[in-house]
Amino acid sequence: MADRELRAVYAQKLVALAARDPRVCVLEADLAKATGTGPFAAAYPERFFNVGVAEANLVGVASGLSATGRKPFAATFGCFASRRAFDQFFLSANYAGLEVVLVGTDPGVTAAYNGGTHMPLEDLALMRTVPGLAIVEPADPTSLEAAITLALERKGCTYLRLQRKSAPELYQANEHFEFGKAKLLRRGKDVTLVALGALMVAEARKAAETLAAEGIEATLVDAFTLAPLDGKLLLELAGETRRMVSCENHRVTGGLGSALAELLAEAGVPARLARIGVAADLFGEVGTQDWLAEHFGLTAPHIAAAARDLVK
Amino acid sequence: MTAKVPETPASAAEISALAARAKSVRRACLQSIATLGIGHVGGSMSVVEILVALYFRHLRLDPADSKAADRDWFVLSKGHAGPALYATLAEKGYLPKELLSTLNKGGTSLPSHADRKLTPGVDMSTGSLGQGFSAATGIALGLRLDGPRSDGSTKRCWVIIGDGESDEGQVWEAASFAAHYGLDNLIAFTDANKFQIDGSTEAVMNLRDLCAKWEAFGWKALRVDGHDFAALDRAILAAKTEKGRPVMIILDTIKAKGVPALEGRAESHNAPFTAVEMAAVDAASGEALHG
Ligand SMILES: Cc1ncc(C[n+]2csc(CCOP(=O)(O)OP(=O)(O)O)c2C)c(N)n1
Ligand SMILES: [Mg+2]
Questions:
Q1: Domains of chain B and CATH, by start
Q2: Alpha-carbon gap, residue A279 to A252, rounded angstroms
Q3: pLDDT > 90: what percent of chain B?
């Protein structure tokens, strides 16, 4: 199947869900053109609200709508969804026990030409501290569709980390997804690669192929949700392969790598961990996505090298 | 089902009944703070009259069903005045009055700041200033999406912010939003008690002409004496007739109103308040201290 643009999938899925669920509302903060929710605005103008460049109010209005029984999907760049509106999302939405879906677009290096100011490399770390919040970063169009449906049905808030660009299909249309259930994409005895999101699952996949050609058999996991984390499966795989590499389009502090370190340490599983992600002491920068991914060491060769180091 | 509310000005007898309620709510609130020994006396006392005017005259409510689908919603955006809201809810029958003595004690359902998950009758969790007002605009939007009640009346959201709270950028983000979407089912109040934590609002952050600001943001703005029930009643009835834009009623109030030792003082914000201070209040208002 041809690649599908993820932001188009986001808008189409919401249009489809809105037809059968009157609770669905879409909120934007002057980035509707970027998120690509024009089709929703055209189909359901009475359920589409642009709040202007006002992210705190974006989350406040979404919380109020949720209080009256709506299911708001509120989007902005991930940097602003997390860093700028964190207190609003934490208190008005999560602490208040409401059901807001906050969508942070352009994760990590996919912010590309918008550069360091716009590069969310800490959104997962911030969101992971919110009690009860589901954090999902889909790896392909099909899992994005599933994530949107699951977020809609969920009692509680969701942070959806949305890469806008096209991604190839990894899953069959009828694949079953659940928050808290990771996907096993490949099985090997030597090392487990745990990746999150379209960019990193694709890179980890290439790395697994490189490694296989060298005789190193890698297990590959699409984590799907960072919270809840599929601790059961991940501990099982860590026990089997005794080596794990986390692969995230995020700083190594506080995100997937940190979550795995906590998991392994607390369970006492004797496994080594290497973390692929932007180094702890770096801010984002400007460039093409490919240049940035290479620059920050997120690409397949870096993942393969980390795995090799653990195996030898 | 909620009860209908009057659409005509309150009579003299009704005004004195409201004043009696206010006396009772004020005392119950202070008593609950005195049980603890410290609390947000100033900002609780300045909103007693508006809370009584709303809960005993203007909100469509059903105290037996705090989540009634046809109710009006109320958001106390200056969430630290929770004690005044709880005393009002208890007076109205949402909560047993005995519960008030649990204010702020471990495990209580009456925390310092208003909490929708803990307290029946509380529609939004607040405490981080600016957020409740923003959520109130979302609630008003949601109520408009619901459409009117079966009797054709409008479902409204009512919200109170502080004057110090008006320093928050989020208040003005939401102000633009409510006007842009013409939320005429949103009626807001600013408790202009002239003080915030670090001093007078004039000294800490001069708000200048609040009425002019709200008008400039596309709201209808009124200014009334926030302790005068007849004035409050007239302003609220006028606000309900406004079409196409939200209404902000600036309440001229006195911080710590009714507590002579603290009235109009910045120190009243989060003040020690014990049985001794309670006795002084009772003596000043010519009432015996019960227990
Ligand atoms: C976002 C935020 N910042 C700071 C505080 C701490 N705080 C609580 S009350 C207050 C002053 C509020 O002044 P005002 O709105 O005038 O309250 P009132 O005079 O009615 O008590 C402050 C700064 C807070 N609750 N929320
Ligand atoms: Mg004040």
A1: 12-285 (3.40.50.970)
A2: 6
A3: 97
CB-CB neighbors (< 8 A) of B137 in chain A: 57, 60-61, 64
Contact criterion met (CB below 8 Å) for A108 and A278: yes
Contact A88 B143 (CB under 8 A): no
Domains of chain A, residue spans? 4-167, 183-311
Nearest CA in chain A to B137: A61
Which ligand is located closest to the Cα atom of residue B160? Answer: 1
A183-311 matches A4-167 in CATH topology: yes
Best of A24, A61, A63 to mutate (most B CBs within 10 Å, chain B): A61
Q: Does the structure show a pLDDT above 50 at B149?
A: yes
Contact call for A88 and B170, based on CB within 8 A: yes
**What fold does the segment set A183-311 form as a domain?**
Rossmann fold (3.40.50)
Q: Which of B197, B201, B206, B252 to mutate to test the pocket of ligand 1 (most atoms within 8 A of CB)?
A: B197
Q: How far, CA to CA in Å, does B123 sit from each of A23, A159, A181, B46?
A: 19, 24, 35, 21
Under 8 Å between Cβ of A125 and A251? yes
Give the distance between the most distant pair of CA atoms in chain A: 60
Cα B25 to Cα B48: distance, rounded to the nearest angstrom = 7
Which superfamily is assigned to A4-167 in CATH? Thiamin diphosphate (ThDP)-binding fold, Pyr/PP domains (3.40.50.970)
pLDDT for residue B287 is more than 80: no
pLDDT at res. B291: 40
Bond before A228 cis per omega within 30 degrees = yes
Six-digit token pair at A190?
A: 């030597």
What ipTM was reported for this prediction? 0.94
B78 in ligand 1 pocket by Cβ < 6 Å? yes
| B289 pLDDT above the threshold of 50 | no
Residues from chain B contacting residue A47 (CB–CB below 8 Å)? 145
Mean pLDDT of the B164-192 span: 98
Residue range B14-67, pLDDT digits in tens: 999 999 999 999 999 999 999 999 999 999 999 999 999 999 999 999 999 999
State how far residue B156 is from chain A, nearest Cα, in angstroms: 12
- For B270-276, what is the mean pLDDT? 96
Answer whether A230's CB lies under 8 Å from A135's CB.
Answer: no
Q: How far is CA A282 from the centre of its chain?
A: 20
pTM over 0.90: yes
Q: Are strands B195-196 and B199-200 parallel, antiparallel or unpaired?
A: antiparallel
